[in-house]
Amino acid sequence: MEVVDLREKFELFNEHWRPKIVAELNGQEVKLAKFQGSFVWHSHADADELFLVWRGRMRLELRERAYELGPGELIVVPRGVEHRTLADEETWVVLFEPAATRNTGEVRDARLTAPEGERI
pTM for the complete prediction? Predict the structure, then answer.
């Protein structure tokens, strides 16, 4: 067991849209990511995905509606739901999802991080 200081871990990287693994539990990974700009539309056929805003503000868009989230707020995107994330300014986000989940779903993009995600 180890204590993970999220603030300290967020300070270790600067790149956007490339989640870093900080912990694992029950087949899930806890990842940190910095968002700025917009991400690709995608879905995860076999995985729910939780977004928890640590710092800043983000928007989660579905084809039929959008959600605005600020610090301390979270949302769970059910498996199979097409979505994309956006942030006007740099936003720090904690993600919970099954291990080796591709951050771009089935879409191939230069920002693909799994199945070989980086651990910090």
Answer: 0.88
